[in-house]
Amino acid sequence: MLYMTKELIIAFFLLFSASVQAQDTEKQTILFFGDSITAGLGVQQEQAFPALIQKRIDSLGMNYEAINGGLSGETSAGGLRRIDWILRRDIDIMVLELGGNDGLRGIELSSTKDNLQKIIEKFQTKNPNAQIILAGMQVPPNLGQEYTSEFQTIYPDLAEENDLPLIPLIMDKLGGSEELIQGDGIHPTPKGHEVIAVTVWDVLLPFLE
User: Fold this and answer.
1) Could you report the per-residue pLDDT of 29-72, keeping only the tens digit for each?
2) What predicted TM-score, i.e. pTM, was given to this entire model?
């Protein structure tokens, strides 16, 4: 028969309590899964909008870790190939920002939508209780008005079909401002990322509270 002294019982209790506390304080994760906009091409990592979201989270004492899963040049097909590797860890919320490079390359719209749908399905299969927030994208009109208009409908259609919250156009408030857009006419400046962070935060916050 195992005999436990009072001191051993107290030590065991303290160890157990510390273990429970560590589990309780484990941070939930927010994955920002996207392309160069998410990655922060042309700015410092701490200036990209996922890092700015983390600063807001920390300032409010929220128990979340923001993960920047952006990759410059990423297409929806590339994201689909990459998602299984990303999902090796548990994710509580995913902000999905992909498709802009598809539009710039004139990729068939049905292919872009299908790839994004498969990313959503893979995420939901791996994390059935997690939340996806879809970020809408837009492309320049150089491929024709029909293509441009149909491209923008991909995101509200996916949001409706999958019952997902939608950030209508993640870069809509940047316009053509030289203060908010880099010289390439595509990527946000640090101030542009600040604007995007506010846009994303407004949709994200209800899922953190």
Assistant:
1) 999 999 999 999 999 999 999 999 999 999 999 999 999 999 99
2) 0.86
Among residues 36, 76, 102, 193, which one is catalytic? Answer: 36
CATH number of the structural domain 28-207: 3.40.50.1110
**Predicted pLDDT at 13:** 40
99 Rama class: left (phi>0) / alpha (psi -120 to 50) / beta: left
What residues contact residue 158 under an 8 Å CB cut-off, 6+ apart?
Answer: 113, 116, 117, 120, 134, 164
Helix (H, G, I), strand (E, B), or coil: what is residue 62? coil
Q: Which of 24, 59, 163, 184 is catalytic?
A: 184
Q: Identify whether 193 is a catalytic site residue.
A: no
Residue bearing tokens 């846009």: 199
Give the pLDDT score at 7.
44
The single residue of 35, 102, 187, 193 carrying the catalytic annotation is 187
